[in-house]
């Protein structure tokens, strides 16, 4: 049961997008998100659609898998569109006392809907094509200028990597402990709220003890290999830009320029 | 018939990129009171198999029967099943959580709905059976040593008085004395309480010493299911699966090849000793040299 949760939902294939430097993908995602909110005209949204479609094709991730990420926010989506459609003032198309469907409302609702959907899919492409460790490496490099103002960028990135590394381990431990206690007759399902909270004790106590034990062991292991923090530390796989990354940056720049042109010179 | 598995198949994460066929069409019958050993390479499906015995895992297809009843039929009391089929996981000390040892061992009986006094009675009895002295009862389980924690955890399952006891590598990580103690205790329980014992282990010597029947798992399939002597006589097949026969069996085969008329089906050191001494006693032709060989062989076996 718990095994089926894939964290960050990385989808392993080999595509151009998978092999890009994570920094390019970070910046690309941000550019895309900004363009979604800056775009005001339909032309802007059409451009975004083409861009997103291209990205999705290039990622070689099955579309169905991607759309799965939308399921949790379907409710949010419905509510957003609902309120925008019904409560935006403007040219009334159909009304019943305070509940009015206006033309402006429909347009706004549609725009909001598209923005949300594209936002989610756009960010999903990032996590689907980049492993969690690549993500933290990319983030560490991008934030490294902050080192100058004494922000412990390396330590934060290391904490993130370790946390990500231990999520599957602790999930498995939780599964094991749950099974062991269930084998002794523990019941995590039945009973009222108070009962359920009480029944979590045989699960949480061993889990915490286990987590602390692992943290302790890991710290000792790292020290035994002379780990002393970030200063002067090199990497096994340093991030280096390749030809594809440069091309990707150029394409992003083109997209940005087109977006600006459409926004300022084409009103629709 | 205590436990019966009919055409049980189990697949992890079916239909995804991480799909894994852990069990393939397993058919098994376990009578009450038998002492069984389950061996297999890592990833052969042993752990998955034993979790089917007490209903922790539901088979992807196939039936699991306990005392003739399908445990997955509508309304079957699985919670009750788990107090009749006790399962001790690997490194069971990780399940300890209570403020003192006695309270932790009482957890199982409490879940069975027994009264406060009955729980305590069961707990004390179980702790005695695993050889944990009274002075430890009031201590926090986290203060105990590794071996003591292990015993407290096993007592936690024993206190439920199960009819079947399944143990997944109960001796993992223990020192030799600890291992012997635990296994002796388990054997004692088998004889006195007449419970069915299913022992998963990587130690062929332990298995050979205690079990009546061995089930060999390989890549999710049941490969061999027979008496220990039969199973270990197939030692070449076992080696191909990443397993082996007990060390003493290899010595016997080597001795036989060198011309000693020993019983190659010997799987414990005691059996081997008897057979070797017999072979030497019957060998009247080689007087003087046989005296030396006899002493040196007995000395190295004694070691």
Walk me through this protein's architecture.
The complex is a heterodimer of chains A (268) and B (303). Chain A is mainly α and 268 residues long. Chain A has a domain at 1-130 and 240-268. Helix content of chain A is 66%, strand content 3%. Chain A has helices at residues 22-38, 42-59, 63-68, 74-87, 103-129, 132-143, 153-182, 193-198, 201-224, 243-265; strands at 92-96, 99-102. A two-stranded antiparallel ribbon of chain A has the order 1-2. In chain A, helix 2 runs parallel beside helix 5. By secondary structure, chain B is α/β, with parallel strands linked by helices. Chain B has 2 domains: 33-59 and 82-230, Rossmann fold (3-Layer(aba) Sandwich); 247-302, no CATH class. In chain B, 43% of the residues lie in helices and 20% in strands. Chain B contains 12 helices and 10 strands. Chain B has helices spanning 46-53, 78-84, 101-111, 116-129, 146-158, 176-193, 204-210, 228-233, 235-240, 247-257, 269-281, 287-302, and strands spanning 3-12, 20-30, 35-40, 61-66, 69-70, 85-88, 164-168, 196-200, 213-218, 221-226. In chain B, the strands form 2 sheets. Chain B has a 6-stranded mixed sheet, sandwiched between helices. A 4-stranded antiparallel sheet of chain B has the order 2-1-4-5, with helices on one face. In chain B, strand 7, helix 6 (176-193) and strand 8 form a beta-alpha-beta unit. The longest helix of chain B is centred in the middle third of the chain and has 18 residues, at 176-193. Chain B is globular and about 65 Å long. The relative contact order of chain B is 0.13. The mean pLDDT of chain B is 88.
């Amino acid at each position: 049961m718990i095994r089926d949760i894939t964290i960050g939902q990385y989808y392993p294939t080999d595509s151009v997008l998978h092999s890009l430097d994570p920094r390019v993908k970070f910046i690309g995602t941000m550019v895309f998100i900004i363009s979604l909110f800056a775009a005001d005209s339909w032309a802007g949204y059409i451009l975004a659609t083409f861009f997103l479609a291209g990205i999705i094709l290039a990622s070689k991730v099955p579309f169905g898998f991607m759309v799965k990420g939308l399921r949790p926010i379907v409710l949010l989506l419905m509510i957003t569109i609902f309120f925008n459609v019904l409560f935006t003032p403007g040219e009334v198309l159909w009304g019943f006392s305070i509940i009015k469907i206006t033309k402006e409302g429909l347009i706004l609702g549609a725009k909001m809907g598209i923005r949300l959907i594209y936002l989610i899919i756009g960010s999903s492409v990032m996590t689907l094509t980049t492993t969690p460790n690549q993500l933290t490496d990319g983030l560490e490099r991008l934030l490294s200028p902050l080192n100058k103002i004494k922000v412990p960028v390396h330590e934060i990135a290391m904490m993130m990597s370790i946390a990500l590394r231990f999520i599957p381990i602790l999930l498995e431990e939780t599964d094991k402990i749950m099974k062991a206690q269930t084998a002794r007759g523990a019941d995590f399902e039945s009973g009222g709220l108070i009962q359920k909270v009480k029944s979590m004790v045989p699960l949480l106590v061993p889990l915490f003890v286990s987590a602390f034990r692992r943290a302790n062991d890991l710290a000792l292991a790292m020290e035994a290999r002379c780990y002393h923090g970030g200063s002067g530390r090199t990497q096994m796989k340093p991030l280096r830009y390749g030809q594809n990354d440069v091309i990707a940056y150029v394409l992003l720049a083109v997209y940005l320029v087109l977006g600006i042109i459409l926004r300022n010179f084409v009103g629709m | 018939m205590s436990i019966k598995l009919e055409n049980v198949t189990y697949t992890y994460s079916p239909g995804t990129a991480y799909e894994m066929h852990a069990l393939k069409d397993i058919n098994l019958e376990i009578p009450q009171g038998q002492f069984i050993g389950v061996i297999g390479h890592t990833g052969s499906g042993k752990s998955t198999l034993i979790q089917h015995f007490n209903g922790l895992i539901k088979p992807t297809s196939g039936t699991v029967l306990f005392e003739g009843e399908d445990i997955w039929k509508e309304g079957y009391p699985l919670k009750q099943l788990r107090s009749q089929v006790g399962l001790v996981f690997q490194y069971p000390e990780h399940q300890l959580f209570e403020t003192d040892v006695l309270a932790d061992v009482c957890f199982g009986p409490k879940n069975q709905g027994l009264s406060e006094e009955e729980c305590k009675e069961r707990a004390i009895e179980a702790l005695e059976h695993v050889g944990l002295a009274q002075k430890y009862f009031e201590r926090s389980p986290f203060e105990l040593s590794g071996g003591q924690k292990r015993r407290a955890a096993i007592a936690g399952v024993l206190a439920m008085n199960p009819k079947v006891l399944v143990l997944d590598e109960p001796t993992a990580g223990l020192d030799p004395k600890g291992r012997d103690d635990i296994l002796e205790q388990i054997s004692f329980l088998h004889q006195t309480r007449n419970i069915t014992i299913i022992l998963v282990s990587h130690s062929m010597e332990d298995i050979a010493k205690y079990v009546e029947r061995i089930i060999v798992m390989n890549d999710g399939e049941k490969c061999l299911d027979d008496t220990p002597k039969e199973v270990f006589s197939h030692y070449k097949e076992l080696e191909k699966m990443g397993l082996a026969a007990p060390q003493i069996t290899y010595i016997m085969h080597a001795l036989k090849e060198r011309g000693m008329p020993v019983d190659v089906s010997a799987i414990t050191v005691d059996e081997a000793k008897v057979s070797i001494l017999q072979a030497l006693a019957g060998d009247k032709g080689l007087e003087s040299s046989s005296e030396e060989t006899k002493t040196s062989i007995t000395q190295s076996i004694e070691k």
